[in-house]
Amino acid sequence: MSHSSKVISICIFIFWGSSFFCQLLAQKISIYPPIQELGTIPDSQPVYTFFQLVNESKSPIEISKIDTTCGCTSAQLGKKVLLPQEFTQLAVTFNPAGKWGFARWEIQVYQKGSSNPIELALTAEVLRDHILSHQNISFGKFLHGKFVEKEIWISPVSFENFRIDQVYLNINGSKEFFRIVQEKTIYDGFFPRPRPAYNIRVSVLKTLPLGKRNGILVIKTNHPKHKKLEIPVTMEAVAGIVSSREKVLLSPGDIKESIVIYHVVEGRSFKITKVHCSLPFLKTSIEEIVPKQYYEIHLQGKVPQDFIHNKTGKITIKTSFPGQAEIKIPLLPSS
């Protein structure tokens, strides 16, 4: 190819590319309104709303995909291809069950030929629409020797003479490590407005031994429909370093698993000095996600068929942390 032919080809390519780029820029979808403010809503029922999508360009636009950032939100598009100045509706359903407080949920609209989405959003203040502020009490994992506390509120919608007659905790282990306090107050987390409520605080004392505990907080009241309320309680007091997996179940064939190792106190540093797997067909490696704080142990290999016959193994993780020099994670057959 001659020099002049190359120049002509390059110019044609630049012209074509520029035209295509300008055509993409000319394609424009506008969304009205860009943010739907749902205001204060109860957590007991779905909310339905609409957005209007308008093609404000001079060319047809095809909407290729709609993504939501939360499983609580679904979106249904009226039509996918919009002619110039044509509009369609995007119907959105938001299910607030399990949500609480102020939040924002985003929806992404993609048009064909573009990887950059147009974003629209929902905002809402979700309040409880039943007698309890929380359906369970989870302390999660916390450092052994630390005083921790959780609280809930209880109030029926309309029962002026509501009274709590008894509160107690049924939990494995001695009850001497727990304290329950109740008092009358005003709670602003109930729908549709703040109302008188009982505040119940469950405290875990510093003397609680290491380990997991599950229990039930029992609340007895004078309400004819809620004479006895039972709220699950879960907790785990740990020495410091914890693992995302208590055990790893293995099935015959190729395996690729990860185990996260971290300290429950944010910012507390430690080192993993060595990782050993007792099963010769598996290899381990360490990835330091956050230096000296957050690690990922990768486990991969091929599990033989005969592993399922009463064989077990373990991963041994050695650390620099005082009191937890060694962590062991069992490797067990999946069946």
Folded structure, characterized:
By secondary structure, the chain is mainly beta. The chain has three domains: 101 residues, Immunoglobulins (Immunoglobulin-like), CATH 2.60.40.10; 102 residues, Sandwich (Immunoglobulin-like); 93 residues, Immunoglobulin-like (Sandwich). It has a five-stranded mixed beta sheet with strand order 2-9-8-4-6, with no helix packed on it. The N terminus is likely disordered.
Map the helices and strands:
Blueprint: H1 3-26, E1 29-32, E2 35-42, E3 47-55, E4 61-68, E5 73-77, E6 81-82, E7 87-94, E8 101-111, E9 118-127, E10 137-143, E11 148-154, E12 164-171, E13 178-187, E14 195-204, E15 211-221, E16 228-238, E17 241-243, E18 248-250, E19 253-263, E20 272-277, E21 282-290, E22 294-303, E23 313-319, E24 326-333
Parallel strand pairs: 2-9, 10-16, 18-24
Antiparallel strand pairs: 1-3, 3-7, 4-6, 4-8, 5-7, 8-9, 11-14, 12-15, 13-14, 15-16, 17-19, 19-22, 20-23, 21-22, 23-24
User: What would the average pLDDT be, to the nearest integer?
Assistant: 88
For the record, what is the CATH homologous superfamily label of the largest domain? Answer: Immunoglobulins
Q: What is the CATH domain class of the largest domain?
A: Mainly Beta
Oligomer: single chain
Describe the main β-sheet briefly. 5 strands, mixed
Strand tally, please? 24
Identify the overall geometry: flat
User: Hey, roughly how much beta strand do the residues contain?
Assistant: over 45%
Query: Uncertain segments of ≥5 residues (pLDDT<50)?
Result: 3-26
Widest sheet: strand ordering: 2-9-8-4-6
CATH architecture of the largest domain: Sandwich
Distance between the termini: 68 Å
Q: Could you state the order of secondary-structure elements as H and E?
A: HEEEEEEEEEEEEEEEEEEEEEEEE
Helix content: under 10%
- What's the helix count? 1
The structural class is: mainly beta
CATH third-tier fold name of the largest domain: Immunoglobulin-like
Instruction: From the alpha carbons, calculate the radius of gyration and give it in angstroms.
Output: 29 Å
